[in-house]
Amino acid sequence: MEQHFRSYVGGQWVDGSGSHTDENPADLATPVGRYGVLDAAATAQAVDAAAAALPAWSLSNPQQRADILDFVGSEILARKEELGRLLAREEGKTLAESIGEATRAGQIFRFFAGEALRIPGEKLASTRPGVEIEITREPVGTVGIIAPWNFPLAIPAWKIAPALAYGNTVVFKPAEIVPGCAWALAEILSRAGLPDGVFNMVLGSGRTVGQALVSHPKLDALTFTGSVPTGRALLKQAAERALKVQMEMGGKNPLVVLADADLDTAVECAVNGAFFSTGQRCTASSRLIVESAVHDAFVERMQARLAQLKVGDPLDPSVHIGPVASGAQLETDLSYIRAGHEDGGELLAGGARVDCATEGHFLAPTLFAAQPSHRIAREEIFGPVAAVLRADDYEHALALANDTPFGLCAGICTTSLRHASHFRRHAQAGMVMVNLPTAGVDPHVPFGGRKASSYGPREQGRYAVEFYTTVKTAYIAP
């Protein structure tokens, strides 16, 4: 029997209108389930419910919040294989990656269970005799969360958990193609002991549900992860209302490989960063910048390594790369492959769809030798497509790495401490990796970038307090 995924508003499950297919990108003949979508009026009801629940929840006992978040995190960890399987079927990650993401989501909730008991504050002496100063952090209010489809458990977790930990109420809008993961997360939260209205989950399109959420007068803050065009449009709309905003909007991340690098390490970093999770990560290494002295040897090893990767059913433990998440994303990937050819790039590997036992959105990991001006070397593709760029020396490689409007993550493979230290300081990115894939960050440290990649305070870790709270300064005289 197919599962039916519903929205969660004011403590009640809501069917929404119509019945839409939740596609399995690895097997179009066996969908994950069905779901209904909300209209603007129902979305407004969700915001109203969150706003009504805010006064009591914002003053709730921090131990209560900690216990609720610990319950959620513990259940996610206990069910990580089950949730990972759902994620693999719905989004297309391999089962190992999907279980890893579920594990990360559980760890995030448990981390913020602790943070609920560690909300910082200060007590200072005034310049006026006998006057005390107390600086405290209070909830920012009702928070709208718009999450993407590529990490349908982890990214909602690192937005929802701190919002609740610091006493905010939430209206969560997941991406349309992952309603099952959103429902699974909401279902756990619905049993965690939250008062009605504190957490709400609304299924629907960005055009209808997203717009109704952002335009609602009772919304106090918005955290968004998604594309640059959508983010910029939302930022303009939020600015008109002076909403507090936090945005993560993608990247075109470089991995620099110097002549002194261990090439085996460099190849593994490149393959993992560029192609695992089907390249559908904002931290993916889509520009491989290789010093000329080892360029040809690196390309040869990359071709051999990519030939070893198996594309197919993400539930098959022998598969390394699952399907692209949707037909629309597959067409985007193929359009960039065509652009790579049209711009004069040299196809080194892949470049075509893969036939598997089931009908799905399978694409071979694709590697081009390209020039810095080529579209595949400048625009975010969000698929298993990467470009190799030749650099004359370290200085040229650094210049190429920074020659992008994005600035999320940057990596370097080198055995030179001097070059590694210089790159860490001079790479124009919010995160830097040395001899590691650009994709993959721990849940207790800040996540975010510079330039067009990010806007507003960092996500994750203790730095999340900057977005989800507001500072109050109080003067006290005897």
Characterization of the model:
This protein is α/β, with parallel strands linked by helices and 478 residues long. It has 2 domains: 3-249 and 453-476, Aldehyde Dehydrogenase, Chain A, domain 1 (3-Layer(aba) Sandwich); 254-434, Aldehyde Dehydrogenase, Chain A, domain 2 (3-Layer(aba) Sandwich). It has 14 helices and 23 strands. The strands form 6 sheets. Strands 15-16-17-14-13-19-20 form a 7-stranded mixed sheet, sandwiched between helices. It has a 6-stranded mixed sheet with strand order 10-9-8-11-12-22, with helices on both faces. It has a 3-stranded mixed sheet with strand order 1-5-4, covered by helices on one side. Helix 3 crosses helix 4 (95-115) and helix 9 crosses helix 10. The longest helix is centred in the N-terminal third of the chain and has 21 residues, at 95-115. It is globular and about 75 Å long. The protein starts with a strand and ends with a strand. 53% of the residues are buried. It comes from Luteimonas wenzhouensis. It holds the Pfam family Aldedh. Keywords: Oxidoreductase.
Tell me the CATH superfamily of the largest domain: Aldehyde Dehydrogenase, Chain A, domain 1
Low-confidence stretches: none
Structural class: alpha/beta
- Write down the Rg: 23 Å
Number of domains: 2
The counted number of beta strands is 23
Instruction: Describe the main β-sheet briefly.
Output: 7 strands, mixed
For the record, give the distance between the C-alpha atoms at the N and C termini, rounded to a whole number.
68 Å
* Rough outline: globular
CATH architecture of the largest domain: 3-Layer(aba) Sandwich
Query: What is the helix content?
Result: 25-40%
Give the CATH class of the largest domain.
Alpha Beta
Number of helices: 14
Instruction: Give the amount of beta strand, in percent.
Output: 15-25%
